[in-house]
Specification:
Helix content is 55%, strand content 13%. The chain is α+β, with helices and mostly antiparallel strands. It folds into two domains: 51 residues; 136 residues, OmpA-like domain (60s Ribosomal Protein L30, Chain: A, 2-Layer Sandwich). The protein has a five-stranded mixed sheet. Strand 1 and strand 2 form a beta hairpin. Helix 2 packs antiparallel against helix 5. The termini are far apart. It comes from Zhongshania aliphaticivorans.
Length: 215
């Protein structure tokens, strides 16, 4: 092989610095892609965290607004507020095994209707009125209610209708019955059972209108 042929063979091979440069270029490209992905993930995580914080702040503002609306009856001990649910003792509203509203209960609902209606309107929510009983069966001879389900349902309906009679729009409130289910304390004695005989009122989100497009 002649010297010229040897020189041509050497010239045809890529120089080592070119290979190293291509390798570094590839590594830089991978690094840039990883950096872009990391920044995008961090931004998405930050936005998700900010959204969650905003949701919690809104929930806390609503809770505080509800407490302010119920300040007077809460201070008087006529109602309780637990996890956003307004609890009224059954003894305040009804006599034992009865769904007829007592005067004390009617007066209490009269004071609650206006602040509740304002709160529901401002937050675009509905009011769910739920009836609960203790675990004791309906007394024999009571021909009006077959069991605790019927009693709790009628009590919830009575409170719902009373609120509507006081001026709350019918499309802002509805009734639900739970019978002896979901007691707040164990049914051990008369005191604990009296706590479980109650009516609760809880603001709940409105169902989305089918004619409206989801955001």
């Amino acid at each position: 092989m002649s010297a010229s042929e040897l020189d041509n063979g050497i010239d045809q091979e890529p120089p080592i610095w070119a290979i190293f440069g291509d390798l570094m270029t590839g590594l830089v490209g991978v690094f840039v892609l990883l950096l872009v992905w990391a920044l995008g993930f961090q931004l998405e995580l930050s936005q998700s965290l900010e959204s969650e914080i905003q949701k919690r702040e809104v929930a806390e503002q609503r809770r505080q607004a509800l407490e302010e609306a119920l300040a007077d009856p809460l201070a008087a001990g006529r109602v309780t507020l637990r996890d956003g649910k307004i609890g009224i003792s059954g003894s305040v509203l009804f006599s034992l095994n009865s769904a007829e509203l007592q005067e004390e209960g009617r007066a209490l609902l009269h004071t609650l209707r206006a602040p509740l209606q304002v709160y529901l309107g401002e937050n675009e929510q509905l009011l769910m009125v739920s009836g609960f009983t203790d675990d004791l069966p309906i007394q024999k001879g009571n021909l009006q209610f077959r069991d605790n389900w019927e009693l709790s349902a009628q009590r919830a309906l009575t409170v719902t209708r009373a609120l509507i009679d006081e001026g709350m729009p019918a499309n802002m409130v509805f009734a639900a019955a739970f019978g002896a289910q979901q007691p707040v304390v164990d049914n051990r004695d008369s005191d604990s059972r009296s706590q479980n005989r109650r009516v609760e009122m809880a603001p709940v989100p409105r169902a989305q209108n089918a004619n409206q497009k989801a955001p």
